[in-house]
């Protein structure tokens, strides 16, 4: 018999008399990731407490125990943490120094700041991955447009000037925001205007993008989901195919090993998404890291034995992790972006009638053009069919097709 | 293209500015069925409002929009309904006359009182099923113990006195409560003490119990889940096996047809569970009806394309129904009952470590001996193995086995 005595959480703050042993998870951030984490926490019987910017946020609409407050304020975080056995995150934006302060005061923060800072700061992430020998695109911090030109020249092949170059602010970017592809020194001026350090990276001529998602718990147990293909449109995730079609067993295993190594070496607790480039010559390079449930793992809600959300909760609570294996030959996720019509209810009805096996996940968000407001999952044996079903529903919900 | 214009709900009470078209479902009753219905409603993007007896009830712990109040009070129901596009139920106990009053005032009640009264009153149910030709155990309303003896004598075979007889109060029973199996006229006194009409039924010498679960929407669409075997222990559901092992295609189809007929003829909207006896000579007789998500359908959360909870919501909103087909060869559900230990957290850890594919569903309820506090689902190709996994977890959580 395996003993878990070492990992059992202390009871919460006594707000639930008679139910002291099922712990309270506090999640900072009220977006759709928190919404779906709460959904996954309901069958687990845990308590879920939310720190949300507003009472209207996606997760705040569906969670019972909501604190409205500013995650940038240490006192707010401190008061919120008081009711929780463990603190975890819907986004990377909580200041690292606040997390250190909370940790010093005895709050259990998972992932902890020593790990999370690598998802918060792309410069730190690149330096650390280089130190542990993880292959990345050529990169360095650049000081100004002239330095960008120098960086480009360093990578120039015979007869080229090394442009285009990818520039990223080291903090605060997501979904293509905070990222520029610049074709010359003139275009390189823009990213420096925010006053945030800028990272230059070679523009990788990739064959496609992959994601290797793993979950790691404090006692060191880890599980790896199948490696997926991720298709981006205008810098925003559009489609995820699980598993990545035609990916060799070798490269798939290498990507999983890479993600497990990063999780272990950085001390990640919870879900880690490693976004990868698959190069045309069959290598993999790390693009980005996220230490929370991630868009590339939404397919697991309907396509895996245990979803990324359930496993993230199990990990931050140091519960044994759930089986990450797929339930279907193919699962496809397409994001639903807002279109020109603010009202999706007609389209939603139509999609349900057309495809009774379609799984729609709506976030309760106001529709704005280009905004992620939901996603759909489909599964089956025929990839072309599975993909077409998800594609159709996402396009119909957005309003880009009619029928 | 199919038009749904006729079925679109009027927007809610405007409490969610900018999100008027996703409707508000109000559920009366804060038990685990409401908890799991809310869980299923999160991806649907609908609003879920709860009328709960206390703020500590199973569903009240996880729902954002909770009204605490007494469902037996018409004014409370009226105020609650004001914020909802449709009213539905976690239990059968709302007085029928209140539902009629609400309906008369324009509230959309699903299932409506004309259907629901057959799940509220066993006498009405038996009379109606007889009228539409549905096979039931021999039964009639009895006036006193002498009348019970007369009922028994009417069914006596050669050389017997017709006992034992099953007696049920026509209202208020569940999980074996309100049901007696009496062996003689002396024992027949007890059920009359409550002052509620008593129904006598023959004690069917059944081979096993089955359940046929269907979902029907107001526009008449209906789906049928696979017929399951339900194993009761001490009058409480213990195990559900989907599909019922060894059930002939003919009997399975007959059971589904029967349930669909009842749903249509009684005008049921939402989930209908038809509990059945399979007799030793290969007939099926209706035991009980429930017009809400039901314990015999909990396996659908992990074992069907669309769960009973999601389909109940889709039905009461008149949305197109989801695919009811199974995702695995076998799915088994076992209820987790409370044992002698109030703290299940150690056992829960152990079960997760032992079986990473186990799906635990906890209700957030205080542990009391014999009380349903959760259930587990397992699935796979080998029924003996799938059943053993669920059995083990339920027993370990209850504390009846150690290892």
TrEMBL record, chains A, B:
General function of this protein: Catalyzes the ATP-dependent conversion of 5-aminoimidazole ribonucleotide (AIR) and HCO(3)- to N5-carboxyaminoimidazole ribonucleotide (N5-CAIR). Catalyzes the ATP-dependent conversion of 5-aminoimidazole ribonucleotide (AIR) and HCO(3)(-) to N5-carboxyaminoimidazole ribonucleotide (N5-CAIR).
Binding annotation for ATP: 122, 168, 201-204, 209, 287-288
Pathway stated in the Swiss-Prot or TrEMBL entry: Purine metabolism; IMP biosynthesis via de novo pathway; 5-amino-1-(5-phospho-D-ribosyl)imidazole-4-carboxylate from 5-amino-1-(5-phospho-D-ribosyl)imidazole (N5-CAIR route): step 1/2
Organism taxonomic ancestry: Bacteria, Bacillati, Actinomycetota, Actinomycetes, Kitasatosporales
PROSITE patterns linked: ATP_GRASP
Key words, A-Z: ATP-binding, Ligase, Nucleotide-binding, Purine biosynthesis
Gene: purK
Name the UniProt record assigns to this protein: N5-carboxyaminoimidazole ribonucleotide synthase
Source organism of this protein record: Streptantibioticus cattleyicolor (strain ATCC 35852 / DSM 46488 / JCM 4925 / NBRC 14057 / NRRL 8057)
Single biological process term from Gene Ontology: 'de novo' IMP biosynthetic process
Positions of the ATP-grasp domain: 126-317
SUPFAM superfamilies registered for this protein in UniProt: Glutathione synthetase ATP-binding domain-like, PreATP-grasp domain, Rudiment single hybrid motif
């Amino acid at each position: 018999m395996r003993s878990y005595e070492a990992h059992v959480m202390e009871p919460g703050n006594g707000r639930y008399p008679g139910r002291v042993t099922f712990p309270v998870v506090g999640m900072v951030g009220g977006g759709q990731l928190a919404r779906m984490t709460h959904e996954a926490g309901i069958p687990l019987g845990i308590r879920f407490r939310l720190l949300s910017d507003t009472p209207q946020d996606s997760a705040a609409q569906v969670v019972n125990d909501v604190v409205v407050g500013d995650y940038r304020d240490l006192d707010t975080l401190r008061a919120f943490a008081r009711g929780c056995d463990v603190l975890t995150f819907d986004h990377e934006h909580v200041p690292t120094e606040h997390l250190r302060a909370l940790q010093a005061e005895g709050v259990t923060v998972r992932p902890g700041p020593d790990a999370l800072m690598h998802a918060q700061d792309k410069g730190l992430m690149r330096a650390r991955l280089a130190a542990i020998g993880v292959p990345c695109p050529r990169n360095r911090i650049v000081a100004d447009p002239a330095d960008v030109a120098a960086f480009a020249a360093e990578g120039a092949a015979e007869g080229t000037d090394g442009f285009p170059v990818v520039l990223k602010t080291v903090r605060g970017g997501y979904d293509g925001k905070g990222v520029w592809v610049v074709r010359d020194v003139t275009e390189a001026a823009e990213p420096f205007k925010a006053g945030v350090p800028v990272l230059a990276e070679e523009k990788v001529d990739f064959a496609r993008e992959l994601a290797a998602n793993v979950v790691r718990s404090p006692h060191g147990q880890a599980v790896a989901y199948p490696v997926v293909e991720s298709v981006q449109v205008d810098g925003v995730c559009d489609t995820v195919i699980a598993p990545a079609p035609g990916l060799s067993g070798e490269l798939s295993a290498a990507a999983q090993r890479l993600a497990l190594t990063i999780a272990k070496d950085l001390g990640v607790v919870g879900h880690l998404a490693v976004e990868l480039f698959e190069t045309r010559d069959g290598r993999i390079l790390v693009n980005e890291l996220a230490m929370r449930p991630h868009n590339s793992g939404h397919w697991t809600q309907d396509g895996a034995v245990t979803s990324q959300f359930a496993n993230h909760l199990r990990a931050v609570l140091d519960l044994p992790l759930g089986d990450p294996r797929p339930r279907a030959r193919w699962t496809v996720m397409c994001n639903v972006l807002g279109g020109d019509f603010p009202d999706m209810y007609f389209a939603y009805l139509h999609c349900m009638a057309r495809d009774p096996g379609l799984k729609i996940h709506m976030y309760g968000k106001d529709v704005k053009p280009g905004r992620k407001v939901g996603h759909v999952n489909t599964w089956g044996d025929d990839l072309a069919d599975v993909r077409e079903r998800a594609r159709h529903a996402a396009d119909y919900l957005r309003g880009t097709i009619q029928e």
